[in-house]
Amino acid sequence: MSKTIKELKEEILEYEEMIDNLTSQLCGDEEDEEFEKEIGYYEMIIKNDKDLINYLEEEEIKKFEQR
Taking CA atoms, which of 13, 38, 54, 66 is between 20 and 30 Å from 29? Predict the structure, then answer.
């Protein structure tokens, strides 16, 4: 099942909130490395979701223009 643009945007907001929560926990110790890895993972998901949103929006425009 593929996600809708709305679902992707909601997912992005959730991951941005998770990043904010993790960023607030960074304190300059050895645990930071794990937090930074997790933040990087969430940032990658956000980028992929944004790329997919752009693709889906372009496809919608193409379908609309073909009518």
Answer: 13
* Confidence category of residue 1, pLDDT binned at 50, 70, 90: low
26 contact partners, CB below 8 Å, separation of at least 6: 32, 35, 36
Look up residue 57 and give its two tokens.
């929006």
| % of the chain surpassing 70 pLDDT | 99
Question: Amino acid identity, residue 65?
Answer: E
* Range list of H helices, 1-67: 5-25, 32-66
Entry field: residues in the chain: 67
d(C-alpha 58, C-alpha 33), whole Å: 38
Compute the mean pLDDT over every residue in the chain, rounded to the nearest whole number: 93
CB 16 within 8 A of CB 46: yes
